Amino acid sequence: MREATPKTVYLKDYTPPEYLIDEIELTFELDAERTLVRSHLSLRRNPQCHSECVTLELQGEELELLSVAVNGEKLADTDFVITPEAMIIRRVPQDKAFVVSIENRINPAANTALEGLYLSSSMLCTQCEAQGFRKITWFLDRPDVMTRFKTTLIADKNRYPVLLSNGNRTGQGDLADGRHWVGWQDPFAKPCYLFALVAGQLECVADEFITMSGRRIELEIFVEQHNVDKCAHAMQSLKNAMRWDEETYGLEYDLDLYMIVAVDHFNMGAMENKGLNIFNTKFVLARPDTATDSDYEHIEGVIGHEYFHNWSGNRVTCRDWFQLSLKEGFTVFRDQQFSGDRTSPAVKRIEDVNALRTRQFAEDAGPLAHPVRPEAYIEINNFYTLTVYEKGAEVVRMLHTLLGSEGFRKGCDLYFKRHDGQAVTCEDFIKALEDANGVEFGQFRRWYAQAGTPLLTVTQHYAADAKQLHLTIQQSCPPTPNQPVKQALHIPVKLGLLNQDGSTATVRMRDNSATEVTLNLTETEQTFVFEDLPTQPVVSLLRGFSAPVNLNMERSLEELAFLLRHDSDTFNRWEAGQQLACQIIFGLMTDLQNGRALQLDEVMIDAYRSVLSGSFDDLSYQALLLALPEESYLAGQMAVIDVDAIHQAREFVKTTLATRLRTEFQALYAQHHRDESGCFDAGAVGRRRMKNTCLSYLSKLEIEDSYRLATQQFQTARNMTDQMAALAAIVNSYHPNKADSLESFYRQWEQEALVIDKWFALQASSSLPNTFATVQALMRHPAFDMKTPNRVRALIGAFSQANPVHFHAKNGEGYQFLADQVLVLNELNPQIASRMVTGLAQWRRYDPERQALMKQQLQRIVASEHLSKDVYEIASKSLA
Ligand code: 0A1
Ligand code: ZN
């Protein structure tokens, strides 16, 4: 907790470590309230560091010291100093290696921040990224200190029969007093943020994987007994990921054992600890009746993500935390590729871009904007952001686009070979890609350093006589905190041309011709000329969303409808529909603001009718074409966000489409409605998506027929996708059985925490009247718990981040509620508390009355006592 104004850490101040720790021998005598930690550190001076200093400073927080010795000699009180953040030993040997031995005690049960060693339900587990290891014992807690770990775990055998840590099991045995021990050794040197241990009553679901070189790997998933029947999908996902990484990147697993443990209490999604991943249960457990199709996909994605970290993150790690995107951006890109290959590349790309544009673009346009490689932080945990992860992945994707698949693979091969076992920088990554391909990415590097979303403004001129199209693209980037002026970036812009009949036109530039090109935009303004075009083509720009930018290009509704029908690029086809809907919704908002009656343009109805009647192999893609832009995406397009007008206009469009195309929606519902529970192939998933999209539209009609349809589906569903979609249709309408349905759903799933999270989130995000009262009542519900991050996200997170109409209620009650909760969470779990503050960060985007109310709550937070660094940083930067 905060004493004075917390200190800022700067990238420019990086210096190599003065000491290295080659090996650590760690012994834990585990107990929920009193765990004893003994550690022997084999240290030596870092030969690369020539400072004169003879002291040794080890990081440690909230630890009770029992003893400390150097080379076996216990230190006197005068030989060292303990501060709230460190142990400083005044003099250590300089000319030879030495051993520091420490004994300390910690209390896992009191650790509600869930960093370091903590209790989750009845099991003990760790979370050490980014700086949790210092809450276990004193250490050089920085990623460029890579150490070989030997760990012995001792615990009561009844309470903690399973004892796990990184690497391979080296021995085990019983002790006289009812305790037992297990020894572990990890042959790979690693930074301490990758350390993990788990102790508890856990069941093991086991399988195996034979690697491409024929090695047999044991795969083990550990869960509580009642979850054993929900591990099959995670296990299959793991095997898929292992095979995929071999086939796509030539990367093989390196230990003989790969373990995953699922825990109920976890601040993030999962953690890539070497050989012992620890996962939020949300990203492991799935059974057809408890998890939706999207849950199944997310599980495969996150299992893949953590597995891929074994190379991009563990074998090659980060030099310092400013390089976080080196491992995260790259690994997100890899998991996106994997998920696309496993499901539908088109759908996956659209979902990723949609999330990026809705959420990361908002971050990049607000007070918390920072580069993919940040330059300063107060609390590193605040930098596990959408920018570092998702924009970071886009930056890697652009490198992939510029080099092509083969060139990119060559670059990655060199990167892993050159830097195996090292802690490196984003610069090292780019350099390897350059060297392997003999290219130069000078200007491209600015993507790592410059914050903000670039804007491309496009104008075109067709010269009929010369049969040429002139396309002029200007790039600019709005100022962001500490970066008032921006430099031009190297932006790859994929382009295709369509003839008037919708067929593909050849793209000819000087002597080259192709069906599609990637333009290299490097200047502030550039004109590209396309030749040999007898009629004016329709331009399809930024195909596949080839760069994370905003595009400003005037298009008529007719042109967008044309692209929605004909663009061969699946991303741009969807994008045309989104732009069409956006233009129409914004037009309706103007009508609303001027008191005019609303009327939906026939272009929109025709466009949707043609999607509904079209024939699609990929029904998930068809469902996406029918999805209106989210309210938060629309909000991101407005200078001053008008939450009520957005909601009303969008609801009007949805209801009118449902009314006018009712027959089509009903027919498609009937066509795709069948029970395929337990089947997760693309066909079954797509049919469920289409059917439930139709149900969602039909529920807007508020008629008996639709109510009956929803009730029927709710009562007969044998899979969570259908049950949840039906419950959503009921809860988000004036359905007469709403209360009963919610009640029966709760009773059915009371014992399944992850399903109950859905129950909370659904109610918290409803735009219907009285939601705030419901949220307040749910805060008092016996199943609500402030110490369980998933529950907090389901209720407080959903209300403040997915319910614009009620969170932004004009009287400010939503803001005050959020600030109240942030202050409670601040004492319990600073990481979760600071995540919740982001609901207020965008305050400058609203009308003056709301601005004042939001600002007031941020000021109240900043002024409160005992503020954690986490919350202080987000709240104070939001106000700056
Ligand atoms: N490295 C993990 C995510 C993670 C990050 C931080 C954490 O605590 C502050 C925990 C987990 C990943 O990318 O999956
Ligand atoms: Zn990651």
Automatic annotation (TrEMBL):
Cofactor: Zn(2+)
Organism whose genome encodes this protein: Methylomonas rapida
Metal-binding in keyword set: yes
Keyword Transferase: no
Residue ranges annotated for the Aminopeptidase N-like N-terminal domain, each copy included: 111-194
Major enzyme class: hydrolase
Similarity comment: Belongs to the peptidase M1 family.
Name of the protein: Aminopeptidase N
GO molecular function: alanyl aminopeptidase activity
Peptidase M1 membrane alanine aminopeptidase domain boundaries: 234-444
Reaction catalysis annotation: Release of an N-terminal amino acid, Xaa-|-Yaa- from a peptide, amide or arylamide. Xaa is preferably Ala, but may be most amino acids including Pro (slow action). When a terminal hydrophobic residue is followed by a prolyl residue, the two may be released as an intact Xaa-Pro dipeptide
